[in-house]
From TrEMBL:
<dbReference type="InterPro" id="IPR027417">
    <property type="entry name" value="P-loop_NTPase"/>
</dbReference>
<protein>
    <recommendedName>
        <fullName>Dephospho-CoA kinase</fullName>
    </recommendedName>
</protein>
<dbReference type="Pfam" id="PF13238">
    <property type="entry name" value="AAA_18"/>
</dbReference>
């Protein structure tokens, strides 16, 4: 049975790395955040952290906190017909509940955990990568990252899916150590 692996974690934890590796191993791939990027473009705005935050919160204000999940279900269903799927960036508690009710045991939530200071350091050092599947490897200052953390926890209920994860993987060491942990559960 094909599975939906919903990847959760704060900015800079390694969610996109998991998605990239799983996609290379033949998993289907969808990124929740692509909805935000597409909407920023549709509104004729520049893609930047401030506009993305505004759009994320606006979508949820108009469609409910589960709006992203509702938009993603048909896309997940189509991919699940042929392969397991990695979903990069499940955020809100409402999204979690909608998807868990719909997919049941077919959905496995994987939390990638990195302490804040290490994530902030990594985010400050990020360099855009043309081969990045998610197109999500943009640099954030420590202040931007902290503000995003607070907004995602306070306004988007991001803590719930992290707390309810079926699997938690710490990403505090080398990339090789991280890949070894991923191999135990996903790839």
């Amino acid at each position: 049975m094909n599975k939906l692996y919903a990847i959760v974690g704060m900015a800079g934890s390694g969610k996109s790395t998991v998605a990239q590796i799983a996609h290379e191993k033949g998993f289907g791939f969808l990124r929740f955040g692509q909805i935000t990027i597409d909407e920023v473009h549709a509104r004729g705005m520049e893609v930047n952290p401030e506009n993305e935050k505004m759009v994320r919160e606006d979508i949820r204000a108009h469609e409910g906190m589960g709006g992203y999940a509702k938009r993603m279900i048909p896309k997940f269903d189509a991919l699940l017909e042929t392969s397991s799927v990695v979903a990069d960036g499940l955020y809100s508690w409402a999204e979690y509940k909608i998807l868990k009710e719909y997919y049941g045991e077919k959905m496995i939530v994987v939390c990638i955990f990195v302490p804040p200071e290490l994530r902030y350091s990594r985010l400050e050092q990020r360099v855009a990568d043309a081969n990045d599947l998610a197109q999500n490897k943009r640099q954030l200052t420590r202040e931007q990252a902290r503000a995003r953390d607070y907004a995602e926890i306070e306004n988007i209920e991001k803590g719930g899916p992290i707390a309810m994860a079926d699997i938690t993987i710490q990403n505090t060491g080398t990339i090789e150590e991280f890949l070894n942990e991923l191999r135990k559960y996903i790839i």
